[in-house]
Here is the input.
Amino acid sequence: MSERPDNTIAIPELAVRSAEEKGVLRILAYFDIFQYPLTKQEIRQFIPDFFSDAKLEPVLKSMLLNKIVFLHNDFYSLHDNPLLAYRRKEGNSRAKKLIPKAYSIGNFIFRFPFVRAIAISGSLSKDFADENADIDFFIITKANRLWIARTIMHLFKKLTFITGHQHYFCMNYYIDEEALLIQDKNIFTAIEIGTLLPVSGYQTLNEFFEMNKWSSEFINATAKLDVPVAIKKDVKPWYKSFSEWAFNNRFGDHIDEWLMAVTTRRWQKKNDKGIRNKNGRTMNLVTGRHFSRSNPGAFQEKVLFLYKQKLNDLKLS
Here is the structure.
């Protein structure tokens, strides 16, 4: 999903808005950044307080009547624009074709050394794919082996450029077992956590979701742990066991620290040169001993800034 900074909102002035209406507007405003209208079920899913259908239905009807929100093809939006619903349906259709491939690739990535869990992230985890969609993965590694795991996986990714399949292996966010708690506590990270699609490493992912129950302060979404049994069976091939045994020592500790330092320096040079990715965003890697995440063009900060602007427009800040 791509943001539209110029997508302004025009909402009729009302003397009083209920807490329920404000909740609906807040979540629609967030997804409006991505031109992504929501179904009634999704609105209920993402509002922090639990809304039954009986409670939400009259609120939505009233907002429709007063032209505060608009409905096209079962999708609610802040704009009376049926093209948004059409765009979403097209993106949902492409996502349904791509998600099985994402599960297959995720299970393959799980076989790499020191990988403890894999989940699908990004727009695909929200059931949307545009014409040039990537497959993004959230990866949890063994404690203090993140940088060995990441290096091996990114060396493999270089091979995928030969066949033109690099966009299927966007391994953008790594944490290890020492950093299961996400420190950035905001609506952006809450929605990213709440929409992850678990692939492998069920037990580790469950621990991750337990550690991040703070996300319920922002959304009511629960992690999608109802994955097929076949996906829950974690396969550990012999080469994964052997390589983990070989680096399960102080030498492995030193190698991991060295790879972190090398990677951080290399990415800093890219930032200093202003190198941009295929979308024209400046490349940025946020690193630490127990985490690594790409943040091209300060994307998270940009989304939060746009969200604050929309709340101001709606007089909800």
Strands lie at 70-72, 75-77, 115-121, 136-141, 170-176, 197-200, 285-288, 291-294. The first strand starts at residue 70 and ends at 72.
